[in-house]
């Protein structure tokens, strides 16, 4: 799956925009597109703690019935996953992407991510089928070493991007990565820094401008990084936010633990998380 955009679909309200944003990204990056549905492994049925409460024969019958029910459940979930993949493939075909690869995975999340190899981008919905914020969103961002695009429940073709910059070495590295990425080509970039130094922000703006990226720079002062970024995005019609995740700088520390969920919940725009 090297150099491929992976769209993670689960039949939730985010499934359609996940497909649409993944198609947009694959088109901009000029790379293959794949749809992936994951069926998690469940722990085997266990009734060993009932020993002494019910008879041996009854316990064996109960175990057999639980195994049968679990097997039927897995079969139905796999069939449901195949139906989701088929519907998504039909949607992509209508939008000019007829060759999307279909992947159905069954297993532990970390094992599945390791199998994927060096992908180009992973696209997930902010709202998963079981959770207001994608069921495994934080786990994926922590485990995945490649960029992750987290999208809302509606699609809007990105035209104005906000790059959340903090002046750290890691943030500067991400800035340089974006100057050579086709993803920003043709987009207006808003370079936004919260509680930083004006000179640092200006240096970053020069880097983007030399790369031919139309850039507006803004230094904000606010006690809440989340609030400042979200308000700026809403007030300036930002259609994509780019930021680092899980680092050591002030802005990056902000995205550890519960702060990630807070940003996912408050931001209305898709979020491109860079590692």
Distance between the termini: 19 Å
CATH topology of the largest domain: Rossmann fold
In spatial order, strands of the major sheet run: 3-2-1-4-5-10-9-6-7-8
Average pLDDT confidence is 83
Rg: 22 Å
Structural class: alpha/beta
Counted beta strands: 10
| Largest sheet features | 10 strands, mixed
The CATH H-level homologous superfamily of the largest domain = HUPs
How many structural domains does the protein architecture include?
2
Which stretches are low in confidence, meaning pLDDT under 50 for 5 or more residues running? none
Q: What CATH architecture of the largest domain would you give?
A: 3-Layer(aba) Sandwich
Any overview of this molecule?
The structure is a single chain. The chain is of the alpha/beta class. The chain has 2 domains: 112 residues, Rossmann fold (3-Layer(aba) Sandwich); 115 residues, Rossmann fold (3-Layer(aba) Sandwich), CATH 3.40.50. Helix content is 43%, strand content 20%. It has 9 helices and 10 strands. Strand 2, helix 2 and strand 3 form a beta-alpha-beta unit.
Based on the model shown, name its key terms.
single chain; 275 residues; alpha/beta; Rossmann fold; ten-stranded mixed beta sheet; 9 helices; 10 strands; 43% helix
Q: What's the short story on this structure?
A:
This protein has 275 residues and is an alpha/beta fold.
């Amino acid at each position: 799956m090297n150099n491929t955009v992976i769209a993670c679909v689960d039949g939730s309200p985010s499934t359609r925009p996940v497909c649409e944003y993944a198609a947009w990204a694959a088109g901009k990056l000029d790379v293959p597109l794949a749809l992936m549905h994951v069926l998690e492994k469940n722990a085997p049925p266990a009734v060993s703690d009932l020993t002494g409460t019910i008879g041996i024969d009854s316990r064996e019958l109960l175990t057999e019935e639980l195994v049968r029910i679990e097997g039927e459940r897995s079969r139905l979930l796999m069939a449901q996953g195949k139906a989701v993949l088929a519907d998504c493939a039909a949607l992509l075909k209508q939008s000019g992407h007829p060759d999307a690869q279909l992947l159905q995975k069954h297993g532990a999340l970390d094992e599945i991510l390791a199998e994927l190899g060096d992908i180009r981008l992973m696209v997930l919905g902010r709202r998963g089928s079981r959770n207001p914020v994608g069921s495994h969103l934080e786990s994926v961002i922590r485990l995945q070493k490649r960029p992750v695009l987290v999208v809302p429940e509606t699609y809007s073709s990105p035209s104005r991007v906000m790059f959340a910059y903090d002046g750290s070495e890691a943030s500067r590295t991400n800035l340089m990565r974006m100057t050579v990425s086709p993803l920003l080509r043709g987009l207006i970039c808003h370079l936004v820094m919260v509680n930083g130094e004006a000179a640092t922000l200006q240096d970053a703006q020069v880097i983007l401008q030399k790369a031919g990226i139309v850039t507006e720079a803004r230094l904000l002062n606010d006690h809440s990084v989340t609030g400042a970024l979200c308000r700026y995005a809403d007030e300036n019609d930002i259609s994509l936010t780019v930021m680092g995740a899980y680092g050591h700088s002030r802005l990056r520390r902000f995205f550890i633990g519960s702060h990630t969920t807070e940003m996912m919940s408050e931001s209305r725009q898709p979020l491109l998380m860079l590692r």
